[in-house]
Design goal:
200 residues; mainly alpha; Four Helix Bundle (Hemerythrin (Met), subunit A); two-stranded antiparallel sheet; 8 helices; elongated
Length: 200
């Protein structure tokens, strides 16, 4: 009887979730905070005319890029939560995630590689004003940061496929949330450099 009890306790210990190490937590939170500030700084002072201006009919305006950032924040965070709520990744999946933290942070911002946004993440002017969109983004990003700060979920034990990186674990998907927003903040700021950008 004692042997069975001991084995049960040992098995429970092996199945216990691996909580993020503080260094991992700090790294993700730092990147999320930094890109939060980058976004807010990039849209601060943008006038209504600048907000809606398009350098070309086929190029997104600042408003459209900002909407894509806000939509993606919600979509990617939902993906993380669904991934963690699902079954653990297979050993083969986890093997594919190894060593990708740096790659995600480095290459997510590489604008030389172009991707077409999925239909559900394309801008349709869901928010009527800049203030509404910015408020939504802040609420969403603060939720993401709070989750990273407090979660006891085993983010390294769950994975989901990415079209470019293949398998990413849930922690890497959080890094991608920040990297994706930084990528499009760069796109947003490029609009300001285009000929014809309104002075006010």
């Amino acid at each position: 009887m004692k042997r069975r009890l001991f084995l049960g306790i040992t098995a429970a210990g092996l199945l216990r979730a691996r909580v993020l190490e503080q260094g991992e937590r700090d790294r993700a939170m730092s990147y999320l905070h930094a890109t939060r500030k980058m976004f807010l700084d990039s849209v601060a002072g943008v006038t209504p005319a600048q907000w809606e201006w398009k350098p070309d009919p086929d190029v997104w305006s600042i408003a459209e890029v900002a909407e894509h950032i806000a939509l993606s924040e919600d979509n990617l965070f939902t993906l993380v939560r669904k991934t963690v709520a699902g079954p653990p990744a297979s050993p083969a999946q986890l093997a594919e995630t190894k060593g990708k933290d740096e790659a995600v942070m480095k290459t997510a911002v590489d604008r030389s590689r172009k991707f077409k946004a999925p239909q559900n993440l394309q801008p349709t002017h869901r928010w009527k004003t800049k203030a509404e969109l910015v408020s939504h983004f802040k609420d969403s990003r603060d939720r993401t940061i709070e989750y990273v700060q407090t979660t006891t979920d085993d983010l390294r034990a769950h994975a989901a496929p990415h079209p470019a990186y293949k398998e990413l674990d849930a922690y890497q998907w959080i890094l991608f949330i920040a990297g994706h927003s930084e990528r499009h903040i760069l796109q947003l700021n490029e609009v300001k450099t285009k000929p014809g950008y309104p002075k006010a």
